[in-house]
User: Fold this.
Amino acid sequence: MNTPEPNFQRILLVDDDLVVRARVSESLAQDGFEVILATNGDDGIAAYQEHRPDLILVDAVMPILDGFEFCEKLKNLGERLIPILMITSLDDNESVDRAFASGATDYITKPINLSILRQRVRNLIRQSHLIKNQLNELQEANQNLKSLVNLDSLTKLSNRRGFDDYIQKEWDRMRRIKAPLSLIMCDVDFFKNYNDRYLHPNGDRCLIEVAMAMRNTVRRSGDLVARYGGEEFAIVLPNTDALGAVSVAENVRTAIKNLQIVHEASSVCPHVTISVGVSTIIPTAENDFQALIHAADRALYQAKSQGRDRVTMLVA
Assistant:
């Protein structure tokens, strides 16, 4: 993949020699680079933190903080991607090894050949941007993979793993801000009978339609609709009190019923319906989200026991 060089490139030159600073900065400026100057390693660190250059040129031998110590200090700040070209009059193996060990990407010896310097600078910046682009692509791929791991393959909702991760995160957040967290548990009524009557491929299509209706009904940013398992779904409602959660639950129940999916094997309605359990809690350090799940499960059991196709609320 060819990565174009950015139009704007900034170079930090750290050197205590006035003549070197003048010659190098003038040459690089003629090549279109913006050059930031520093006369010692300490000033160089400060200039790096302020300007965030694309590349650093640093002299190996300087007072106060030399080039090797500068590289080490930069590395300790957590910066390992920026290319560092060390300028040195030392060309022995020990000095070269020390330069690379301290964090330099490459080195150039004095007296400086400005033509070679410009070529090295351009190549190092090009390589640096290529590496950063590849890292960004890798991070994006990892994020996509993480999303797939937490996605139910049939309904494209969050799966049980995604649900567990999300409710834990929201539990911790609601505990910090002392706000209510609500959970809705839904179960498709007589779904085993539906599968037996209409066969599993139609059962899958039914679940997909139910999932889409739930997702289209629960649209607030921050709410999560998940397939909890089989024909059971869960809806996490952060910062939502009991009254608000029951309202959402009734909207979901109505939306599923309005799909008018024929279910002649149901004993409560000729169309697909759901039973819904709702629970609300203000998280504390003394409990965990399992208490909320257990309460919503009990509420769901009550909804089924009382005839199905209804919403039941229990406070955790």
